Amino acid sequence: MSLFDVYPLFNIAPVKAKDVFVYDQHGTEYLDLYGGHAVISIGHSHPEYVKSISEQVQNLGFYSNSIQNPLQNALASELTKQSNCEDYNLFLCNSGAEANENALKLASFHTQKKKVISFTNSFHGRTSAAVAATDNAKIVAPINAQQEVEFINIGDIISVDRALRKNDVCAVIIECIQGVGGLDENSSKFYQKLQELCHQYNSLLIVDEVQSGFGRTGDFFAFQKHGIQPDIISLAKGMGNGFPIGGILIHPKIKASYGMLGTTFGGNHLACAASLAVLKVLQDENLLQNASEISQYFMEKANDQPYLKRLKGRGLMLGLEFDFPVAELRKNLIFKHQIFTGSAKNPNLLRILPPLTVQRKHIDQFFDALKTEFKS
Ligand SMILES: Cc1ncc(COP(=O)(O)O)c(C=O)c1O
């Protein structure tokens, strides 16, 4: 049997990883400034994480959601403490797409409406409603296209107002800082007005923090810089540091009923143990502060680079924009300099999404590599 060929692969097979480094079968060391697509938050194979998962699997790896699972309650209370999102309720699932799918479904249950407003260059995942709310026609199958979604340019509050006025919109879904779309972010005024309009027209504001959450921007959630209180916040990626876990934080005005949402694997014991270890390390090692400090250092270094058109993003969710496609540069960074970086929808943008444990010396290593590339 062959693998279904949907991924263009680099010819590297990592077998081991530690903190910000990944190793292949020959022992070659790669600096991971991609974090497996913004997933690695506390560093690869962190001892606290390995211990927590190992101990948990020796006791109880999984049982269904039909019994008490105190680890879910522990995760909810630790999330409240670190995110300051008081009073929200938590529903756990397995991935970012699933988090958004549940968020959209919940919005539709709550408002009894079915249209969604999303934004140009958005990415919300590949399941039914989530992919329909994703601005990429190539990955939307006819079965998904039956969802009613209107795409509006970020910042165009007049069009949002016009769409909401029809009173058929269950949710407005937005990444406060876009991921694969290319790290665009609008003003606090825009996000605040969005919230105000959602309240006015009884639509829910869903903030997708799948990529930007869990400290990646230096704040626990990216939306927190903008002084808003979303109705639903979706999470995944950094939440499990590689262990598949996702979730939504749900405003208390949205009431639960038995069977409204559900999952077999979501919130299982191992996934909770993984996420609890992530939260412990984020706090013990002050990683949000590290993200902000290293980001600052990165920006200072980037400002000195004459070949750079623009630096985008914040925290450790950064993008370097050039005036040429970066595919070749990305390949050279991997194969000549052993550094992983990310790409974006914009072919000229190189994305930097390292573990939040990254240090100045690793940023130096990256800029030294860039310098060599631009000399040759
Ligand atoms: C902002 C955002 N939302 C949702 C998703 C989908 O997450 P997953 O791949 O875990 O389904 C992603 C994945 O890249 C993402 O960046």
From TrEMBL:
GO terms for molecular function: identical protein binding; pyridoxal phosphate binding; transaminase activity. InterPro entries: Aminotrans_3, Aminotrans_3_PPA_site, Class-III_PLP-dep_AT, PyrdxlP-dep_Trfase, PyrdxlP-dep_Trfase_major, PyrdxlP-dep_Trfase_small. Its cofactor is pyridoxal 5'-phosphate. Signal peptide: none annotated. Pfam families: Aminotran_3. This is Acetylornithine aminotransferase. PROSITE patterns: AA_TRANSFER_CLASS_3 (PS00600). The keyword Kinase does not apply. It comes from the Bacteria. It comes from Tenacibaculum holothuriorum. PANTHER family: ACETYLORNITHINE AMINOTRANSFERASE, MITOCHONDRIAL, AMINOTRANSFERASE CLASS III. Keywords: Aminotransferase, Pyridoxal phosphate, Transferase. Belongs to the class-III pyridoxal-phosphate-dependent aminotransferase family.
